[in-house]
Amino acid sequence: MASNSAREASVSRKTNETSIEVKVALDGTGKAEIATGVGFFDHMLDQLSRHSLIDMTIKAEGDLHIDDHHTVEDCGIAIGRALAQALGERRGIMRYASLDLAMDECLTRAAVDVSGRPFLVFDVEFPTEKIGTFDTELVREFFQALAQHAGITLHITNHYGANSHHIAETCFKAVARVLRAAMEPDPRQPDAVPSTKGTLNG
């Protein structure tokens, strides 16, 4: 259920592989309650919440005895659906944002169009296959699921970096910052859908 006037939503998703509960509040303070069973992923989702100022509660139980893939991907699906519900008609938002984000030796760019049309461009290479026990290929899988189910066009480009942890973290932080900027209310057109089509729902 979503309360679009409050820009909040809750999503439950259960399959034979995962059980996920997500709550988001777009106009929050970045408060996060995250428990997916995947430590590094929890850290990244905490960054996503903190730097977007979207309050997030995410509880996931998945088939981690197999690997982390289903849990990470399905969290992306559920978070994306919650964001889409919270946005409602996407009325009165800024819609577009882009940012270059630096962290130590690493620089990553994110750009977003909260368009209702899902698309991901992910131009990121990791120097290692794992960050601890976390498969670095799952970073792309998460953002693919997020973009698809939130209905956003998302471009992520790592310009350079040597540390896989830093590269992943800049991806999540940069995406957080552009989501914050693009989903912010536009004071000059608070009731308008920012599209000549008159809709941002596909």
Report the sheet with the most strands, covering strand number, pairing sense and barrel closure: 5 strands, mixed
Helix content: 25-40%
User: What is the subunit arrangement here?
Assistant: single chain
Structural class designation: alpha+beta
Radius of gyration: 16 Å
Mean pLDDT: 93
Total number of helical segments?
A: 4
Descriptive overview:
The structure is a single chain. With 202 residues, the protein is an alpha+beta fold. The chain is 33% helix and 31% strand. It is built from 4 helices and 11 strands. It has helices at 39-52, 69-87, 137-150, 164-183, and strands spanning 2-3, 8-14, 18-25, 32-35, 55-62, 96-103, 106-113, 119-123, 130-131, 134-135, 153-160. The strands form 3 sheets. Strands 1-2-3-5-4 form a 5-stranded mixed sheet, covered by helices on one side. Strands 6-7-11-8 form a 4-stranded mixed sheet, covered by helices on one side. Strands 9-10 form a two-stranded antiparallel sheet. β6 and β7 form a beta hairpin. α1 packs parallel to α4 and α2 (69-87) runs parallel beside α3. The protein is globular, with a radius of gyration of 16 Å. The two termini are 20 Å apart. The model has no long low-confidence stretch (mean pLDDT 93).
How would you briefly describe this protein structure?
With 202 residues, this protein is of the alpha+beta class. Helix content is 33%, strand content 31%.
What is the strand and helix layout of this fold?
Elements: E1 2-3, E2 8-14, E3 18-25, E4 32-35, H1 39-52, E5 55-62, H2 69-87, E6 96-103, E7 106-113, E8 119-123, E9 130-131, E10 134-135, H3 137-150, E11 153-160, H4 164-183
Parallel strand pairs: 4-5, 8-11
Antiparallel strand pairs: 1-2, 2-3, 3-5, 6-7, 7-11, 9-10
